[in-house]
Amino acid sequence: MENKLYNPAGQPKDWLIENFVARTSVFKKIFKDLETGTMQYPEQNYLIQGQRGMGKTTLLLRLKYEIENTPELIKWMVPVFFNEESYDLTSLSNLWEKLLKYLDNLWQTGGMYYRETDKFVGTDDYEKRIFELLISILKSEQKKLVIFFDNFGQLFLDNLKEKEQRRLREVLMNCNDIRIVGASAIVLEDLYDYSKPFFEFFKIINLEGLNKDDTIQLIGKLQEGSEKKINIEKSKGKIETLGILTGGVIRTIMLIYEVILADEDGTALQNLEIILDRITPLYKHRIEDLPVQQRKIIDVIAKRWDAISTKEIAENIRENGKLMSTKLISAQLQQLEKNNILEKKHTNTKNHLYQLNERFFNIWYLMRNGDRMDRCRVMWLTKFLEAWYDGESIGNFIKKHIELLQSGKYYASSAIMIAEALTYSANVGFEDQATIIKATEVILNDDQKKLLPQVSLEKFNKARVLYNEEKYKEAIMLLESIDQTSGEANTLLFNSYFNLDKPAKAIEVLNDGNNLKPLLLGMAYLKLVEPQKAIKYLNASLDIDISGINIQKSQIASAIGIVYQTSIALNLKRAIKYHKLSIELGNEKGYYELANCYTKIGDFVNAEKEYLNGIEAGDTTLEKKLIDFYVFKGRQVEKALDLIEKTRFKYANDGDFLFYEGFSLFDNDNDGAEKVLFRAKDLLTKGNYGSRLLELAQIILASIYFNNKDKVKANAIFDELDSKDNPVVFLMKAIIKVWNNHFQESFSFINKYLEKSDLINFNINNEYLEKLIILLMAKKQYHFVAEIFEKGQRVNLKDQMKPIYYALMYNLKDKYPNEFLKMGEELIQPVDDVRRRIEEVATEYV
Amino acid sequence: MKNSLGNPARGDAFYDRKKEIAKIYRVLEAGTSIYLSAPRRVGKTSILKHLEEFPKENFYFVYIITESIDSSNEFFKAIFEEIIKSDAIKKLEQISVAVKNVIVGLMGKVKSIYNVELRENGETDYYELLVELFSHLKPDYGKVVIMIDEFPQTIQNIMEKDGGPIAEAFIQKNRELRHHKYLQDKISFIYTGSVSLFPMVEKVTSLTSVNDLRTVEVNPLSKEDAADFIRQLMKNEDFSLNDELIDSLLSKVGWLIPFHLQLMQQEIIDVFESTGKEIDESGIDKAYDQIVHTRNKPQFEPYFGRLTKIFKGGEFNFVMEVLTFTAQNSTVDELVIADKGVKFNIADTKNTMSILEGDGYLFKTADGLYRYTSPILQLWCKKHICK
């Protein structure tokens, strides 16, 4: 495995040729050029570029082997392969020396060629001399060299001095005895300065990540001869995901394939550790070369693994206790993207997502820089496992893995990694996690055992009990001591904070791996009264699997509807959409809100229809609500009375119900109304409803008594009336006080009324206000009425009650002689009417 | 014909530049040395290599590239050694026993046998050796033409290493050599390079030091030749392009130098291979768009990278601003140039503009506006250099 994945040169030639599936077309292209180029003149040189693990080395070797296997070529061509560890090749003369040694070795000259270079030691043009020596040897042997040079960029080109660079150009331009096929890894911000003189002699070939078909073909090849084959046809989607998650990097695809499908003893992960150690200096160096802010950004992105938005990055970076501005981050992101370190994933919105371009670098970063606190060391592995296995099939994987552990051959460190990866997966339940930990422990020594995630099943169960007993703080303490944060534990932690009324903290503790995250976020934002965010996350939660919890999707849809309906995110059309969805999802109680929305937009026809639908669907609570609707919104007293009649047997002792009846009768049959309302009032008072209907019943009764001039009953009911903020109640109280000649108290109610009232109130309560003013004037409280008009200026009270105003001015013409004169002729009659009415009232309400 | 993109075209990859070659011979026959002038990548080196490989009767060409050389003696040494090794001398040796003896004698002087130099006290003066070698050649053997590629770069190297006066002496020494009595009617030189010679000379001395050179310009291909060139390139491929498509290809490329035609052909093949569809007008468009893809960076970056060598400080900033301005606006007029000259404090914008013109970046139209010579280069600049 180590050989296969990380050291292609160590593989048997036949094996490599047999298993060369991924880069066939570029192989054919270059080989055709090598085969047909006679090297009579200098030929095209190649530089193959790509991320680590893209198959560069394998491609070089494959080309070399093909030359070796082509008799006509091997007659005159000498293919040389310099591997990645050719650290001694730092100058042009080193290269010629190394080639001379190679030829000595190849032709077993006993070191003759290289010894000839001794003569030139110390000369100014040493490099030129030994180059000419090399060329003369090649000419005399009638051979041509093809150098396959791995890591050509970092090991060689980067080290050349300026003069050597120009020399290299001279050589490439003139020399027809040597041709180069180099490969160069792009690591992070590696970008060549292509204006260097020799570059134009290289054809640059970029190896991109494998596409879907290539990946499928590779997997097919990998499982040739294997007993447990995956059904490629069925797994195409998963393979595609695998391709995307790995960035199409061959080595990573192979690694993941081994780990999740074919590894019998943990070798794959074992070897991963080895290669990670080997590349650590390189990656570390690259990271350290980055400016500090960029390093911080990389840290956040790498530890997230999945693509992340600028805003999310900003939320996770602090500089001297302050959050870094998104503007600054954007600028750095741009730079990092330009330098090929990051890849920008376009979204439908302006907010693009970023992830590390080189996925293998991301794996390295997590493995070497992720600590146990972050729980992200093996996050990549968790993600791959989750991508490949769904909730059900992961069980089979676990079973198989435990069997492998029991075989006793499994590498301990690999077993720990798998255990970690599985325990951090939200797809793996606590019982399964405990089983894995237990099975893994068996093969570990005491020191290794400490590295395992803690077994937390008991703690979790205890926390659940505490939670059910509403001991949230205690539950939180336990949950926070649990090492792994699977979905269940995380949800419980969230709920504990949520129930402690700490929604912000609840959001903070939410784990990315928690499948329910959108839903929980939605709930928390509801509690935080951030409707836009709540809607966003609740909506997202409609697409996730929430089986196994106590909430139905229909409820979520309904919640979204209600937020749209009632919050500042008001959008009734959307509310209707979600209520309908909720009903479709089986929410029988959804009709009421739906009808409510229609009512709010004034679509009474549909509102009534939905009430009726709801009743038909079995929600009988809607009967009363429909009556309420008929009474207050639909203005369909007939229908209300009809329905009241039909349902009376159910609601004979229901205060609300009686109120509706009374209210429906009001105006047409005030005696009947009084009787029913009085009973309703009693029931509502006893019923401890605190209902708005009680107040309404009292107001209507008060109004009836006032109209009937029944002062005793009126006083009784008015005493019952009490409100801190209902303007109508203040108005009614003012009226009864005036009636009783308690002017000071009356004035104070009127002032309260004026304070609370706005234009709308004035319009609606005009009738009572008019009654009050007339009554006041009947009691000769002209100046106070003048004050009312003064205070009522902001709502144009004068204009609304012109006849009353001029009747008042008539009475106050000594004080305001000019006002009365302003009265237009058309008002003479109405003012007279008012004055007559005042006189009547004066006698009626003594 | 093989697409030799990036490398000097050799053998059957070389497209015969009849006009240029005829002109070179005309000048050489008159006994004059040449400065072969052309913007980079027009095909100078290919022409020199072709002359070397397929000389006219009685002509012996020796090609030397001196790009990495940074001292006068090293320069003449390189010429000396190349001549000794060259096919030209081998042929002369066959003609004349005397030549052979001369060389053996000279080799004795440097105590070196081919690659092996046994050092004596002091440095060998290769200039003197060269003169001596030439003194033994007779005019009736034929004409030896020494072709020095990247000569301006060598001047630059010397100037950077040892300063202006040394570089000036180097230029003068070359002039001396050309006019040496032992070289008359026997030896000629062709100088060339991807950096323009005259501005480089002017940096260290006056142009009189090179006024004996006759400038021969390498022009882009004519439309007919360019069409023929494309057809030749396409012969190796599995598909062909009809005349109409070739026409439209040429009008897109605009500046018909072999290099840009090779680039275009390469991209057309790429389009053909990646789409698997017969090339039509849209295929040509796609290929043209692809040319300026980052992967061709090695091909274009040097166009702009080399400017840092030619121009320094404010002058470099001025040049980049003129080039990017022109890339974005397609033309630049005298007023803008003057304005930018003031901005960067350039006293003589004319000289700078003439370098840009001479090096093939811009050309002046009849109405006095500068435009990009190559629409492809303009597009590259617009896409990759302009902010």
Automatic annotation (TrEMBL), chain A:
Signal peptide: none
Ribonuclease R winged-helix domain residues: 296-350
Pfam family, one: WHD_RNase_R
SUPFAM superfamilies associated with the record: HCP-like (SSF81901), P-loop containing nucleoside triphosphate hydrolases (SSF52540)
UniProt-recorded name of the protein: Ribonuclease R winged-helix domain-containing protein
Organism taxonomic ancestry: Bacteria, Pseudomonadati, Bacteroidota, Sphingobacteriia, Sphingobacteriales
TrEMBL record, chain B:
GO molecular function: ATP binding
Transmembrane is among the record's keywords: no
Domain ATPase: 14-236
Entry keyword set: ATP-binding, Nucleotide-binding
UniProt xrefs under PANTHER family: ATPASE DOMAIN-CONTAINING PROTEIN, DNA-BINDING PROTEIN-RELATED
Name of the protein in question: ATP-binding protein
